[in-house]
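As the next step, I selected for study one protein, both as residues and as discrete backbone shape codes, as given directly below:
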Amino acid sequence: MSPARRTALPLAIALALSLGACQPATAPAEGEAAAPAAAAAEAIARPAKQYAIEDFVASTGVMGASFSADESRLLFSSNRRGVWNVYSMPVAGGEWTDVTSSDTDNSYAVSYFPADDRVLVTRDQGGNELDHLYAIEADGSERDLTPGENLKAAFLGFTADGSAFHVISNERDPRYFDVYRYDSASYERTRVYENTTGLEPAIVSGDGKWLALSQSNTTNDSDLFVVELATGQSTKVSEHEGQAAFSAQDFSPDGQWLYYTANDQGEFAQLRRVSLATWAHEPVQSADWDIVAAYFSKNGKYLAVATNVDGSTRVKLHDAATGAEQPLPALPAGEIRGLRIADSETKMAFYLNGDRQPNDLYVLEFGGEPKQLTTSLNPAIDPADLVDSSVVRFKSFDGMEIPNILWKPHQATADAPAPALVWVHGGPGGQTTRAHSAVIQYLANHGYVVLGINNRGSSGYGKTFFAADDGKHGREPLWDTVEAKKYLQSLDYVDDDRIGIIGGSYGGYMVLSALAFQPGEFKVGVNIFGVSNWIRTLESIPPYWESFREALYQEVGNPETQRDFLIETSPLFHADKINVPLMVLQGANDPRVIKPESDDIVAAVEKNGVPVEYVVFDDEGHGFSKKKNQIEGYGRILAFLDKYLRDGAATPPPAP
């Protein structure tokens, strides 16, 4: 995730890999009312088979899609061997072919080369997020295209003719990303943009002439620049008043326009374009929610647009010339994700995902019917034993409406009320969405109601709501979680006295804050690599976040000028107030929330004489991507909750 993107700050956890929250699930059509709380409350209770964590983790994760040059095969990523590797398979369906076969470090598919069977993949080391870009030759040999220590690189795309591709790397200066042009045949490279100002490179045009970059002014305000690479001339294309976020989406294939999203004209991001000849702007598409992505097929026949509609992503395909929506055949229930149109513009690959269905890969020949290529859900799991989520809302302490995603277990009834959890997403600025989540389905399957709160400051609900947490961390957003607990207590199928709180990354910070700043509200807390000391976290952020440093300081606090405030809002300095059982999980290689954050809070809370469980994974970073670690981590979370929330919440905690 790019730090400059408005949708979430860099502390946000990559939930798709770590907590099993994959892609948005079925939701009402745009403009249709979301399922009310009553719909979940009135669901008919049914006996549900309970499954072990091994059953949930045995489902296969798949993501990414790239067509081969002849469009006969697809390149994608999967964790079916326990860690993420790269595979290919026939478009017609069939056996998978290993492209990488690591048992240790995760590899992810980037792209086939446009004219042959070579592929590009990316890989870090043990979750340290120092990604390198590798070319894998047709004979299977591998070449690191970005060699060196302590550098981070990423692929920006091939030129339209396929003769070259662009890569960003911070090897020259660890704070900033330069742009390099690689020859597709020889891999010889030339630096085409030296970054001395901290702007973040986003997209290079297909003709290689233009580079779009973003600048984060605050977490709510950004600017967009276009650089002519031949001359170095930079043009700001985001003149605006007040706070507004601009995000580059794609250059038109004819090289005449930059398409971008911006929320300067209202609460939500809309799709517009700017002429590269005159710098005049034109509207393209509008929506009642944030348009979050747009991209062209290679020759410009199609424009795909994604909109975040109340926690679900709507993807629509348009005729790029007329703007008319292109009808698609009837698809199985679920949301389209990861859409990729073949260069011939005759077919597309995509994923379908739903609450009860992890990502499954499909191919659609335009004019034909979709073909399912993968079946990801473990066949030992009956989808009927899983649960559907619903969108619910409550009014917080000051009347602000708070959106949430609710998962209700089949077995929870008024006669048999269930324990419950407030689930807090990462960020700040993330969003809990309607999605398949292995860990949430596991908890619901074992009888826990889960309320995924989108507290003030979450993305997806307008820029005013997004900005409502600025400078207020540890206070108003936290108070929303207390109101979430009260909402759960209003449901007759929830046990009022058995409500805990769980979250990862910034959500983990919220867990610790709830226990330290609102003692007595929650019976237990599960902190998954959350911040305990803002001063240390802000002083130890990776150097490649330099372009985002000031924006993060304005959001959370400046460790040089607001030290007292950060002490006030850091749970570590108030750990003596934590008087209920706490579980902490941490990756030893986490570059975002470093291990001392968890070490120190564990040591401090242990002094209070309350149960503390601490799980460290030596081969993980900011997220638990390996199946063996997910089995241990999720399994231990359930055991902790069963011991201290389901069975032990009636025992009063010791005095602080």
